[in-house]
Amino acid sequence: MKIGILSMQRIYNYGSFLQSYALKTILERRGHEVTFVDIEKRKNYTYPRKSKLQVKLGKLKYVDRYFFRRMEDSKKNTQLDVLFRTVQREGLGLSDEHMSASGLDAVVIGSDEIFNCSPVSMWGITGQRFGDIEGVGKTLSYAASCGYTCVDDMDDDDRALVSGALKKLDGISVRDDNTADFVRKLTGKEPEMNLDPVLVYDFEKEIAQGEREGVPDYPYMVVYAYHNRIESKSEIKAIKDYAKKKSLKTIAIGGSLPWCDEFAVISPFQVLAYFKHAECIVTDTFHGSVMASKLNRPLAVLVRDSNTNKLDDLLRRLIIENHKVVDTAGLEGVLSQSDDYSACNQKIEQECAHTVKYFDEIGL
User: What's the pLDDT band for 25 if we cut at 50, 70, 90?
Assistant: First the structure.
């Protein structure tokens, strides 16, 4: 079949790339020809942006002792954007033109936060992201998520639009309890629960490629987070103190963290290799937690009010709640614990079989 994936594949983010690549490859191994479908923006929708004054005032707090490092990392962020455009074109087959569902036999919606229903999302709420795609034989979702959002975030019109779109899906698969509840309330249906594609796909060949591209030859800690996301003094101090105690270099991946020793601009497969060879990993992200647990690395997951929704669900689902850090005083204990990941690995193995069964039953 000719299958399109409607996902977050255009986002410059390692997790978004890897989940898109993994789902594409999983479907290709099932004998399909796979491409991508771009998200359509709501007509006449304007994404709310800060004024120039607000942007300038927001930057004032970053005039600190890391000022010159921030300037250096700004150049690296530009390099990272260029790298992402290249890997998206080469690894996902994305073109510069808008990619539509025209001529496809089926569309798989997911994974990542494709069901995010925030009224201020960069696309606005349209039926397409939730299953209203004309001219396609089958539409289904796989491990889709609405992230931190829920039914109550939408007004009545959008709620009706999304409900109608979801009901058109031939199969509904989500990755977390919040999204499952979202689907139940809007459709009355019980969705399938599947793991993110990054956990289901093996990546052995890709990790080997990343190792050939190069990894540090000194002991290091990976700090995986978005640009300036880890900025509280207590979190920074706990991470730096642990790294110093263990004689580890801190390497920021995913976004600039100027208090880290380095900011790595590397390919997505190289990221996996860096994770594999790291002494330990600290993250506050979903896919950072996914990659570290998949590779069975010492891991501390920083959970706050802003990310507890999806991270608590993930940690519970993978049976790794002991890697959760709420109070930074507990960071050292979490990173130093012995964890053989046996229960986690068994869960992933079971869910790989569940993914196969889901696609079999849906006819893909």
Answer: very high
